[in-house]
Amino acid sequence: MLKKFSPEKLEDILETGIEIFADKGLHGAGMASIAQQAGVSVGVLYKYYANKEDFFRACLHHSLNSLESLLQEVTSREDKLLNYSRQLIRALQSFSARHPSHIRMYHQITASSGEPARQLAAEIEGLSSRLYTRLIADGSSSGALRRDIDPALFAFFFDNLLMMLQFSYCCDYYKARMELYCGGMPEDSLVEEQLLRFLESAFTFDRSLVPHGD
Amino acid sequence: MLKKFSPEKLEDILETGIEIFADKGLHGAGMASIAQQAGVSVGVLYKYYANKEDFFRACLHHSLNSLESLLQEVTSREDKLLNYSRQLIRALQSFSARHPSHIRMYHQITASSGEPARQLAAEIEGLSSRLYTRLIADGSSSGALRRDIDPALFAFFFDNLLMMLQFSYCCDYYKARMELYCGGMPEDSLVEEQLLRFLESAFTFDRSLVPHGD
DNA sequence: ACAATGTGTGAACGAATATTCACGAGATTG
DNA sequence: CAATCTCGTGAATATTCGTTCACACATTGT
Lengths: 214, 214
Hints:
Largest sheet of chain A: none
Order of helices and strands of chain A: HHHHHHHHHH
Largest interface: A-B, 72 and 72 residues
Structural class of chain A: mainly alpha
Oligomer: homodimer
Radius of gyration of chain A: 21 Å
Number of helices of chain A: 10
Shape of chain A: elongated
Strand content of chain A: under 5%
Number of domains of chain A: 2
């Protein structure tokens, strides 16, 4: 056997870990099966990581990096809220198709409880929550959005929809659920279009702007 | 020790199971800790249920019954889509406050994968998906909703929002996330109001198709 | 009153698995 | 080329946990 594996091998290991954690969860995944599927021995896992949880966190951060760079890229293209939403939807669709196990692992994390859950939420959601809230607040104060809304809550609903969209593309349960609603997996473009209509309506409707006499 | 426990005791056991499965997941929960917390021996669990998974399914169905009766009650009061939504939001808020562990267990289930996940989704989501899709389709054909929408997808988005709302009230991760967005847990009434505005907008946006403005 | 039956108990068993560590095959050094 | 070092290996260990079963006691029937 060869010795000294490359940094790419380390990446392989993390990627394998993500896949298995995504399927079985933190408790269900076994270090032995991770090592085997990654083509290394268990020993090496414990050489690089203190224990299972430590390894799990490493997988998480590896995954968060790719998600963050995605968000960063979309964010850099400053745009109106609706155009921004379209870019975001497309980016999330593409990411979901390329890295479904990352999304699935992320979903597993949301099942954690207690103080760790709070920490993880702050760590993971911090960036997007600040971003979305700012975008919505801007839109609200500039008059592009109805003014009788709470920007924080609207940003929250907005993110809820995007989050569920990703789960619906990647997690078996949510995939089945989406098929149940749509009678089969809908085209990406249809989902994009309809979700945008849903958002557009929510963002720009203002009852007080509708003239009484039509 | 006493002998022969009552049907209420069996309910206690299921309720305890739900609580522990909700916190630890199917893999993480231990039969011994469930038995201990319920105040019975492990043996009795295996007298009534074939194995852990069988017991888990019993807990699930116990929980689904209460959710279904809730939905049934709200559904029985036929009403316009928006009034119906208000009733539904309130009912879900109240249910989340009274039975948070049921929602948490439900969330755990969404993390399952493979064929079991598909089955569970069909079992759990069947009722509400048919109901919501019918409501939205009715609204669309009667002109109460904009007509350029796909009723299935709008019903899907609608349910996504309600689902995330429940998680946000019950699961530690989502609770922390909601606080992150809102800077603290918002009042039930504020959430109700804002979510209704979000939905109202999405449902009735196209003003040329609105039969009569008020 | 007492045998027969039903039912909860919890110690015991075995399978699974997180973690350790003595080993040895290459890499490194002089 | 030999001595030493580095680092992956995987069998061994300890622990946890699902599951079983011989037992004890309450209930029921006669």
